[in-house]
Amino acid sequence: MSKRVWIIEGWQGQASIWSKEIPCSDLPESRVEDVLRCLVAKHGLSEDEIVSAFARKNAASFTPHLEITNSRADEPWSRSCGGNPFFTARLGEQSEQR
Q1: Cα(5)–Cα(21) distance, rounded to whole angstroms?
Q2: 51 within a domain of the structure (yes/no)
Q3: Which of 37-41, 45-49, 82-86, 91-95 has the lowest mean pLDDT?
Q4: What is the pLDDT of residues 49-90, one digit of tens each?
Q5: Mean pLDDT across the stretch 28-54?
Q6: For the chain, give me the number of helices (H) and strands (E)?
Q7: Is residue 26 scored above 60 in pLDDT?
């Protein structure tokens, strides 16, 4: 029987820079978007850009670097965050490579 996993991937342009499968039982859906934001902040933003991303949306200093978007209409649950690099998360089945 296959196991449901989160497939989280990092991209720099079209090149994959990181990938991990995490069992859904280990990472609740409510935390997946937080993981994406943290990965984008770590790999792609300066300290000033991180602070700006947490400003009020109507503030002059606000930047949308850590906004979450629905990344693919054909996926039942798929999210992305960031510009370049960017990170995606989607539901999938555990690969057989393990």
Answers
A1: 6
A2: yes
A3: 91-95
A4: 999 999 999 999 999 999 999 866 776 789 999 999 999 999
A5: 97
A6: 2, 5
A7: yes
Domain that holds residue 63: 4-93
| Token pair for 41 | 């902040």
Token digits of residue 84: 């370049």
Q: Which residue has the tokens 């009020």?
A: 56
Q: How many Å from the N-terminal Cα to the C-terminal Cα in the chain?
A: 14
Count how many domains the chain has: 1
The one-character DSSP state at 54 is T
Domain membership of residue 98 (yes or no) is no
Question: What's the one-letter identity of residue 91?
Answer: L
Identify each DSSP E strand in the chain by its residue range.
Answer: 4-12, 15-23, 68-70, 78-82, 86-93
- On the question of a cis peptide bond just before residue 85, with omega within 30 degrees of 0, the verdict is yes
